[in-house]
Fold:
Amino acid sequence: MAQHSSIVLLYDANGLPLAYHDLDSGAGTESNLGVSLRKTASGGSVELGTPSDPMHTTSLIAAGGILNKISTDNSTTAVLGSNATYTGTWESCEHFGEIGVMIIASHASATDGLKIEQSSDGVNVDSDDKFTLQAAAGKQFSVRAQGKFFRVTLTNGATVQTYLRLQTKLHTVRGKPSSHRIQDSIVTEDDAELVKAIIAARKPDGTFTNMTVDDQGAIRVVEVVSTGNVQQAVRAPVKNGGNSSLLVDGDPTPVVFTYPADSLKDLRIYEIRVVFSAGTTQFGAGKFGGIVGGLVNGLLMEIVSDGITSELAVIKINEDFLTLQPSVNLLVDQTGSSDVITAGLNIGGLMVLKAGTSDVVRVTVRDDISLGGTNYLKCFVYGLKDQ
Structure:
């Protein structure tokens, strides 16, 4: 007699798993964990016990599947009136790993109108996941089933719905939080998982190191040197000694910040970028950051290329950042607690710091800008070193 091992999963009337038993599918009766399992003649169900005293289980196929369950107590198609609320029924989810909701409605919900609530006792809401639905935009949401009970609620917006389809499914095995096409924009109502990770990179010697950030939390990017027959990329700040912050007192003695020519390789300058942040940045008020009246002498930007000095800009007031010509990737952000201006002077590789010379990118601070509400001021040089 051939012996073939298989798994029989036993479920109650609600589709919840009761036990797992290893069953030999050959002829005769097999006993496991003290339970005698027999196939019926029709093969539609499984008998527990003896031929003279059997106990039948429901057919697994007839039970509607073994992994997922539709929650009819938390699904609805009944349309909602203006600002009306649908409230599902507390239901046990302790045998499931994930709660999934698929929903579409003719009109937008109230702010945070869709809630997937979880509870330890089926009475109090211990945690909830909230989402705002857009009109006629079908969405799927999934959350981990952590509580013993759950329910779904939906509060409509001001417009009476003409259709609503809300279906909730319980999953034994967790899936991914949501699906997005690469071309679709991410919106704030997409469900997501918080991921914190350390970014590491491989060095030329084959070892790995963690990437670092600067004092402002930006990823630190330093000179990247390639050993192949390609140009070497440079992104580096101008410095005075080891200091790259231009927030210094340059009055009465100017403070000079430089990025010098390389001793061996020519450096083609493609962009010189200034990044500036202040608590309040007003335009048309004659201010430099928060300094009333602006700077007297101004922030002097120069480049010495092939021994010839060229004045690039003199910045005295906030508007001067906007007039850098030709400028690229200009950004003015006044949405946060501190205003940010970043403006780049596009050199396009037309000016070169000759190797082994006194050629230099130079920024001279000629006023006291160590005060006045300015939080951040640096100047960066972008270029390629010739091989």
In short: Residues 1-7, 19-36, 56-66, 223-227 have pLDDT under 50 and may be disordered. The longest helix spans residues 319-322. The chain has one helix and 28 strands. The helical segments are 319-322.
